[in-house]
Amino acid sequence: MALNRRTDVLILLALTLAAGCSACRRDEATTQPARAARAAASASAPAGGDVWVVGQPYACRRARGPITIDAADHPDQWAHAMVIKDFKVPGANPPAKSRTTARMLWDDKNLYLHAVAEDVDLRATLKGVTARLWTEDVVELFLKPPGDGGGYYEFEVNPINALLDLEIPIGRHTRFESRAQWDSGARSAVAVKGTIERPDDKDVSFTVVVAIPWTHFNFAPDRPPKPGQTWKFILARCDLSKAYAGGQELSTCVPLPKPDFHMYKTYPQIRFDK
Question: Which residue positions in the chain have pLDDT lower than 50?
């Protein structure tokens, strides 16, 4: 009888262990997709920098070394920059379908911009000093130095690396062509994932890197800015695409009541940190 009871206990223990292992395998099978999804989300998240919160000044940090302006990837140079994302469509301000992620840094010579613009239909044909780049695909940066007078600045770069820079005075009407005669001295580079002007295929993105010298900001009181000084800025996108029935999606890094990127009084602050 003792032998039989011992045998029964061993059999029961073996069955319990087997059931437990089977449950473990089921749990592992269930959690593997979740783990993979978390890993993929982590891999696609902006690396290295904290994310800018709208309503607070954007902390533009000093570059930790030279910033390379070319079409190659240099993640280490940008890893500590604060990330700008979650662009909105002006008006009702829903999330933009064409996502944009950007970072900015500075040093005593330049302001630097790095922007990744997701785009399923890359469109760009225009180039030249007075080309209206905003009618196709473009990444835009607007900068307003401190002070009520003077003016503000606009920079645009498209997927074929055409650059438009404008100096826009406040309170004085000037033609677009005269604004475009201002030369910022900016250097830019673009990396494209996809094919430009091929609406029959599906593209991925274009990445823009820009270095803008401080020396030509005629409306700025300090060139370069003093550490801790604040300017105003917005980043914007114009995305011409078959996805929008041949029209454009306009988006900005902050909510706007209407699709007007020149509302400089509503721009958020950019603070130049030490």
Answer: 1-46
| Residue in the block written with tokens 């029964």 | 8
Give the Cα separation of 56 and 164 in Å (integer): 28
d(CA 235, CA 115): 9
DSSP 39: H
Q: Which CATH class is domain 52-272?
A: mainly beta
Is 167 exposed, middle or buried, given 0-12, 13-18 or 19+ CB atoms closer than 10 A? buried
Count of alpha carbons within 13 Å of 183, Cβ hemisphere only? 2
Each residue of 114-140: pLDDT tens digit? Answer: 999 999 999 999 999 999 999 999 999
Q: DSSP per residue over 73-128, as a string?
A: --HHHHTTSPEE---B-TTT-PBPSS-EEEEEEE-SSEEEEEEEEE-SS------S
Report the percent of the chain where pLDDT is more than 70: 82
Q: Tokens 């070319």: give the residue.
A: 70
Q: How far is CA 132 from CA 112, 156, 177, in A?
A: 23, 9, 10
Other CB atoms within a 10 A radius of the CB of residue 79 amount to 13
Place of tokens 């399923």: 120
Q: CA nearest 57: which of 214, 235, 233? A: 233
Residue in the structure block whose two tokens are 């074929």 = 160
* C-alpha 36: how far from chain center: 25
Entry pTM: 0.83
* Residue 19 to residue 25: CA distance in whole angstroms: 10
Domains of the chain: which residue ranges? 1-44, 52-272
What DSSP element (H or E) covers 34? helix 2-44
Contact yes or no for 143/153 (Cβ under 8 A): yes
